[in-house]
ABC transporter substrate-binding protein (Aestuariibaculum suncheonense), 87 residues
Amino acid sequence: FELEEGVKFHDGEKFNADAVIKNFERWAKSKDEEKFYYYKSMFGGFEGDEGHVIESIKADGEYKVVFKLKRPQAPFLKNIAMSPFAI
């Protein structure tokens, strides 16, 4: 995913690949089923769970994020566009 350059959060911090990765890692590693129900539901569980579909998330430069999936997931784009995953 190529991110728009020049976007900032309300506090002035840059919106970049690191911000996306930190948010997805926070959700994936939390294992808090109540707080992050949609993450578990949309991505087959949390990091380390057998069904978790995301193998890795890496930056390819400051404004590009690469998701590697363990297997095809047809609704992946729809899933990451859901409001619970807004950054």
